[in-house]
Amino acid sequence: MPDAPAAPAETPEASATADTPPSGAPPVAQPVPATPAATPSRSASAALPAAAASATPGASSSTAPAITAAAAAFDSRFQLARAALHSGNAAAAATGFDALAASADVDAGRRADALYWAASAHAQAGHAREAEDRARSVASMPSWHADDAALLLGESLLRRGDPTAARPWLEQAARSPREAIRTRAARALATPVSDAGP
Q: pLDDT tens digit string along 39-62?
């Protein structure tokens, strides 16, 4: 009886193709969650940080610091101002946030955050004009808090009896992708003029 033919040897190319792990999950878009991709293997995961660092404009994994000293100091002072606001000391918080918003040595995003929280703190301290000035600036810039600021400004103007000035800001807030802001803005827009006074 003739011997059965031997199974063909696996070629290096086929073996490499079969055993090669995926190159890694694609980056997750923010802030909308993306559908999770397959978990990369241990070897692929180990390569991801270096690849991500090299993709950052103007940065390299060996020389780019995670955060500048100025930004770290800003963040520390920001947390102190937030703590003052949450403890009920809105006036002190407003002063702290105002100083942070004027910082020249940090990025525009941090300054915009501080300006929004300054508006919020001034509003809680009863400083309507100061709150409106800061909220108007934030609502007019491409900031994460633009819709929050538009809502704050619209509601403040409505309380002061100026529904005409309040309307465009409330309409901006009503187009927010965040449901909570849209709901409050719609409620404010539906407020009868007679009920919108101080």
A: 333 333 333 333 333 333 333 334
Whole-number Å distance between alpha carbons of 120 and 148 = 10
Cβ proximity of 25 and 40 under 8 Å: yes
Peptide bond into 27 cis (omega under 30): no
CA atoms of 52 and 44, how far apart (whole Å): 12
Q: Residue 78's closest CA among 96, 60, 56, 92? A: 96
DSSP tag of 88:
T
In the block, which residue shows the tokens 């002072």?
A: 77
Q: Which of 131, 102, 103, 133 is nearest to 117 (CA)?
A: 131
pTM for this prediction: 0.64
